[in-house]
Amino acid sequence: MSVWGPLPSTRPVVLPKGQMRRFEYRLLTPLPLSSDLKKAELRNGLMVSTRPVDVPDMTRFYDVLSTEEFYFVILSERPERFAKFQVSDWVRPYRDELEFKDPRSNYRIIIPSTDDLLPLAETVLDWTGTAVLLWDDLSPDALTPRQQTAIDDWVRFGGQLIVNGAEASEAIAKTSLGDLLPLTPSGNVELDPDAGAELLRNWAVATDTSTDKQIALLREQSARVAVDGPLSSDAVAVAGSGSLVLTRRVGRGRVVQTRFDVTSDWLINWQSYDSFVNAVLLSRPPRKLQESGASGSVQPVPFDTDPSDLVSGLAIEQIYPTVGVAAVDPAFNSRFRIAARDSILPLTESGYRTSSLASRYDPLTSIDSYSGISGWDDRSDVIGLSRQILRDQSGIEIPRSSLVIRSLGLYLLILVPVNYLVFRLLGRLEYAWLAVPLIAILGAVWVARLARLDIGFARSRTEIALLEMQPQYSRGHLSRVVAIYNSLSDTYDVEFKTSDAAAAPVREGKATTQEKGILFQTGYTEGPILSGLPVISNKVRMVHAEQVVDLGGPVGLDAAGQLVNQSSLPLADAFVLDKSESGETKIAVLGSIDAGSTTKLRFRPFGEVKLPDDLPLQSSQLLRSLASPESIPSGSMRLVARYDGAMAGMSIKPDPQQSLAQTIVLVHLKHADWPEPQVDLNLITDFRRVLTDVDTAE
Fold first, then answer.
1. Sign of torsion, CA 477 481 485 490?
2. Parallel, antiparallel, or unpaired for β 70-75 and 130-135?
């Protein structure tokens, strides 16, 4: 995650005397000042009884991921088997031999040590920089329950999980992630050499001369292990793989399960191996190389401006040309998306939009020049539109004139006739004047409470939020933008009930330093705390908060195509939009949807329905943007609705007396299909062979 400014992170630890202690803490990393930044400095400190203690070598330097670069994590007890991955052309693409500048990478291969507790994040909010997870031979009890839940969330929002052969299949089946598998392992069988030969032939690059040799190697040895078992109802075998590679869509993400070990000898020396991994395992676009210039140097084909070339398979490796051409598109390397961070919204009525660059491969996804895709971003379309709404809506609600007139009339009624009658009946009319100060004080307190104001110290909280849910999954991602107003200066704490959360002040202007006193604290309570947030007198301060919430059940379609709301949320102003592959959009108007209800969908052409424009807190702007055909990918279906109020799980202290909140709910009922994998068009060895022949002739 990335935020503006160096936001300090603290946590309490117990350090037994004379013992080494390993612990972990979460950190909200700042956005770099330049997209070309290569190194980041992490400064650590130790406080004992509020006193700083000097500990040497507490500062560390780390390599910064480039915009298009993502983590590729391998969980394995045998890291040496994956040495080839480190030098594969899909990790660090081939560059011109005459180019001396250090090339950027698609992936950073990470193989964490298994000697101790695995250093994997326990919340999906800290997995946004990871594109691929390959599970090799890791023990099923190596991950904590929270790590397993984080991986489950991550896959649902677009992560790719590769399950490598029999050992990985058996291990995952024994965890809470077992329901993600395309195939449930029931035992091992001997690998069918004919199926392996089918895979090698169908996924060989046309100019590959090693395929026959690898098939012979496969056939000459028997007793190669393959996993067997029943398939999930929605699992499919990759075409041309001899049913040895199985895939399954899970939410936005994808699980790839191989019946064999992908580091087997009959694969690893295959010239088309990198093409196979690129296309089948990673589902990246096909690649093509060509000679460039009189020198005969080899370069990737320049990226065409028409993204349809990628669908047809005629375009290239990546946007990897040389000087003067756009940078690499991160959408090639990761399909993980969070709507509040990545979605491009259509122009609002006021012409509002913050995104400056759209992905050429995924045109509905924005690319940040610093964090790429899925980084913490206060400037995204959703967060930017929410901030605009809050600037118009936040502050103290001034009581209406009718409230003032009614309150004054009731006060005078009690002060004069009621007060007179009470003491007249008691026979103590001379005491009526003593009750006047008491009536005045009680009246002032009553009016202040009725107007939701404290005497001399008014506070308000105004919130716009987006809750995003995946198909048939009960956990959702909640993004909030909260405006805090205070009539007098004060500091606030933002607290969460669970660890799946984070918060930071919204960046305003071009400031590059963080205010003193603001801390991101973990380990003090059940969830993190953003503490020491200052709000000066008569000003509005905004906070960007995100968390993962469990809704008690999924929202999805049943076998009959009806909408089933198994969550605990009652929804209002609900619409279901279905956009065909051809781009035609239909809409079903549902209105209110109770928790636990089932609703039949009746679709009409989108143009026949008028979306609401008068919802509370101007939330209609965000709802209409998410329900626009311009923001919906072809081949997908979504539910857009409104929850009246703020979701539970976050509190602000001191508690604002006024609170106004609206939550827009986005439920993905169906995602567009991933493109069919396609083999590369040629190999780098083709050009090296040609150049060698020319040199020999000379």
1. positive
2. parallel
